[in-house]
Each structure stands twice: as C-alpha cells, then as structure tokens.
Design a protein that fits this description.
It comes from Kitasatospora terrestris. By secondary structure, the chain is mainly alpha-helical. It contains seven helices and two strands.
Length: about 180
C-alpha cells in the first residue's frame, strides 16, 4: 500500500499545507513583482530597497520562481505541498547562511543585507513549519496518518481501541 493512499484528500492537515504554501508563495510573488516593477539592475550587488529589503533583478526572478513552486504545491495539496514546504523552507534557511557569509563581498549577486538574511531565516522557518505541522513530532495523536504509517504494527490495535473508547496504560488517546 502506498503512503499517499493513507492520507485522505480531505484530511485536515492538507489544508494547513495548502494555506502555508499559498500564503508564503503570495508574499514572495508580491516581493518579486515589486522588484521587477522598479526596473532593478539584474546583477547589482548593492541593490535597491523593495518592501524594506534590498533586491536586484535576479533576486526578483528567483522570488517569483520560488513563489510559483509554492503556489503549485498549494494547488496540488496533500503530501506534495507538505514536502515542497519542507524543501523550500530548508533552502531558505541555507540561503540565509550562504548569503550571510557573502555579505560585503563581490560574490553577493543577490544584493543581500542583514534584513534579507533575517527574512530568509524567518521565512524559511515559517515555510518549513507549515510543511512539518502534524508530520514531525514526538507525540503525534494515534489517529494521525503519519503516526499510523510509522507504526503499522500498533496502528490497527490502537485504531480499534480508539473506536471502542479505551486506551492501554502508557498510551495516550487522541487529543483534539
């Protein structure tokens, strides 16, 4: 059985993944479009201010491409949106570290400054958190599809106990 079959299309977690990807995608799309509308130089290492952050044409196009990936993930939804959120969030955090190392150098092709680095860290953590919500935790509820997938031997008995209303000692029942 494929794991995608275990997560229902209408599962409540799918909405979290979609909303997170969509909102973050829209923010990046607006930032990128504002940068392009200002006619920024493509490879300027000094950049110009756009919405409180420095940007150039290259960063604007990268923001639009990233926004497109997130918005497509939001449109697809489910595990795909979750995985896209985790990957893009991780890339944002890594980008923050790389661009922090490149500040005040000629290799700063994205015209990053400290506010951009902080934005990259925060946005990366927000996007990744949307992707990991309900998927990565030490205490997932027993009705969580990710918990059931990781513990198939305990999932069937736990599900039957949950339906009957009893839980064995040491195992917490589902919380809502």
């Amino acid at each position: 059985m494929d794991f995608r079959d275990e997560l229902p299309v209408d599962h409540r977690l799918a909405n979290v993944y979609r909303i997170g990807a969509g909102l973050c995608g829209v923010v990046l799309l607006v930032f990128g479009c504002l940068g392009l509308a200002d006619g920024l130089a493509f490879f300027s290492t000094t950049g110009q201010s756009v919405a409180g952050l420095t940007s150039n044409g290259l960063l604007s196009w990268i923001s639009i491409a990233t926004a497109a990936v997130l918005i497509v993930g939001a449109a697809i939804g489910g595990n795909t949106a979750s995985t896209i959120n985790i990957v893009v969030g991780t890339l944002f955090v890594l980008s923050g570290f790389v661009n922090l190392a490149l500040l005040d150098s000629g290799a700063n092709v994205l015209a990053f400054r400290i506010p951009n680095v902080l934005f990259s860290f925060v946005m990366g953590l927000v996007i990744a958190t949307f992707g990991m919500y309900g998927r990565v935790s030490a205490k997932l509820p027993l009705d969580n599809p990710y918990w059931r997938h990781r513990h198939p031997e305990a999932a069937a008995p736990a599900t039957s106990r949950r339906l009957s209303g009893s839980a064995p000692a040491g195992i917490a029942g589902p919380t809502r």
